[in-house]
Write a structure and sequence with these properties.
Layout: H1 14-22, E1 27-31, H2 46-62, E2 65-66, H3 89-106, E3 111-115, H4 121-129, E4 137-141, H5 146-155, H6 166-175, H7 224-243
Length: about 250
């Protein structure tokens, strides 16, 4: 049975979607990996969990409709870990152009792209630039907002980190605690080291990017309280971005 009040188009019939788009509902397109390693303590679908969660927040604030998450993308740093899948950048960009251009034709208002990736940011920006009406696309790279960056700087204890680390794990502890297994949280070996220079490896102990768990940073420092503050900052970034549509 379809639920006409749902924000997810996968729950709706096509004519309900049409009527809501004609009435001015914006399109929301989440991007988040559904098959990308996140250490021993987080599932491969961690990015997709976040993308759908933030898409719901955008929908509540904008009255928008949420399309299915784009859960394959450009994630080359993790391909050495079982289960992780990455598209070629050109493939990912072409996919996005096709999807976004289709939605621009159907929508009278904006297409809002909610992205929980880091390596995806450059190709998503390039894809949007190649869309037929790029000016109608609002891009939200969730981990790049000013409020988030400011709060992160006040909370972070790890000396480095960017993946399945203190910050991302804290967010998941606040957002979806049932998927987190803190008993398996393991810091990357270079706990006092420099930022990673290339793809992580679970096997090459001589590499500066060696991480047997797949995390990069120290997830053992994560807490739900930190996650709640980080999410609140991310939501302020979303609110700031949505104000540009009015």
């Amino acid at each position: 049975m379809t639920t006409a009040k749902s924000a997810f188009v996968s729950d709706l019939t096509w004519d309900v979607v049409r009527d809501r788009l004609v009435a001015g509902a914006p399109v929301i397109l989440p991007i988040g990996a559904g098959s990308k390693q996140h250490g021993f303590h987080l599932p491969l679908g961690t990015d997709a969990i976040q993308a759908d969660w933030f898409a719901r927040q955008v929908a509540q604030r904008s009255g928008g409709l949420i399309w299915p998450c784009v859960n394959y993308g450009f994630y080359p740093a993790f391909s050495a870990y079982h289960g992780s899948v990455s598209l070629m950048r050109e493939t990912f960009e072409a996919l996005l152009v096709d999807v976004i251009d289709t939605l621009l034709v159907q929508s009278r208002f904006a297409v809002i792209v909610v992205d929980t990736g880091i390596s995806t940011i450059a190709p998503v920006r390039a894809a949007i630039a190649n869309c037929s009406q790029a000016q109608r696309v609002l891009y939200m790279p969730i981990y790049q907002g000013k409020n988030f960056s400011d709060v992160r700087a006040t909370l972070v204890q790890q000396r480095h980190g960017s993946h399945a680390d203190e910050i991302e794990t804290s967010i998941l502890l606040a957002m979806a605690p049932d998927v987190v297994d803190m008993s398996r949280a393991q810091a990357s070996p270079q706990s006092g080291g420099r930022p990673t220079s290339g793809p992580l490896t679970p096997d090459d102990k001589s590499s500066p990017d060696y991480s047997p768990s797949g995390s990069y940073g120290d997830p053992s420092l994560a807490s739900r309280e930190k996650g709640e503050q980080l999410i609140a900052a991310m939501l302020r970034d979303i609110d700031d971005a949505l104000r540009t549509l009015s």
